[in-house]
Amino acid sequence: MTLSKRMLLVGAGLAVLAGGAGYALLSQPAEAAIATGGPAPAFSLQDANGATRTLAEFAGRTVVLEWTNSGCPYVRKHYDSGNMQGLQQEATAGGVVWLQVISSAPGEQGHLDGPGALARVRTDNAHPTATLLDPSGAMGHAYGARNTPHMFIIGGDGRLLYQGAIDDRPSARPATLEGANNYVRAALADIAAGRPVAVAETTPYGCGVKYE
Asked: Contact, 151 vs 65, CB < 8 A?
C-alpha cells in the first residue's frame, strides 16, 4: 500500500471517529464514508500538471471537491450547459479552491492521464484550481465518493461542511437546470457569510464512480 493510500485511509478513519459534534446534520445516507462536520480526510495526489497537491496546502481556505467523469451524461449536463464552469468561476473569484477529482480506473469510462485531463479542461473551458488524478480510487473511497458529480466542501479549519449533490434536479437533461436549487452555491454563500450551512448533506446523483 502506498503512503498516499495509507494517509487517505487513516484520514477517513479519524473522520468517522470524530463525528460531527456541534453541527446540525440532515439525515446521513448509509453509504457516507465521513461525517459532515468532522475532519476531512488528508490527501496527497498528483494533479494533471504532475504537481503533488495536499489538503494541508489549502489550510485556512474553503475547498470544493468535484468528482467528475467526462463521459457521464450527468456531468455533461453541467458542463455542456456551462453551469459547472460558471460555478467554478464564481467560487474561485471569491478565493475558494476548486479541485476536480478523477477516480475512474484505467480502462474505465472517464479515466484520463495528466495530458488528457488538461485537454479536457481546455475543451470544456473549465476553471478548476487543479485536477487531481486518483486512478487507484484511494481518495474517492476515503471520501465515500460514489457518483459523478459528487460534491464536497471543506472549511478553512479542515472540517467537512457539505457533501452530496450539486443541486436538487437528479436528471441528465439540461432543461432541468432552470429553477434548480444549487446546493453548492448556497453552501458557499453561507460559508462566506459566516453562517452555518443550512443544507449540509444531500443524496448525490449521477453515474457511479468507475473504480477498479
From this structure: yes
The percent of residues above 90 in pLDDT, for the chain, comes to: 84
SS3 label, residue 45: strand
Query: For 60-117, what is each residue's pLDDT tens digit?
Result: 999 999 999 999 999 999 999 999 999 999 999 999 999 999 999 999 999 999 999 9
CA 20 to chain centre: 19
Per-domain residue ranges for the chain?
A: 3-208
- The DSSP output letter for 173 is -
DSSP 103-162: -PPTTSTT---HHHHHHHHHHHT---SEEEE-TT-HHHHHHT--EESEEEEE-TTSBEEE
Within 8 A by CB and 6+ apart from 40, the residues are 11, 15, 34, 55, 63, 143, 152, 154, 158, 159, 160
Cα distance between residue 204 and residue 61, in whole Å: 24
Q: Could you tell me how far CA 208 lies from the centroid of its own chain?
A: 14
Rounded to 5°, the CA angle 10-41-90 comes to 170
| SS3 at position 166 | coil
CA 169, 170, 171 angle in degrees (round to 5)?
95
Query: In the CATH scheme, what is the code of domain 3-208?
Result: 3.40.30.10
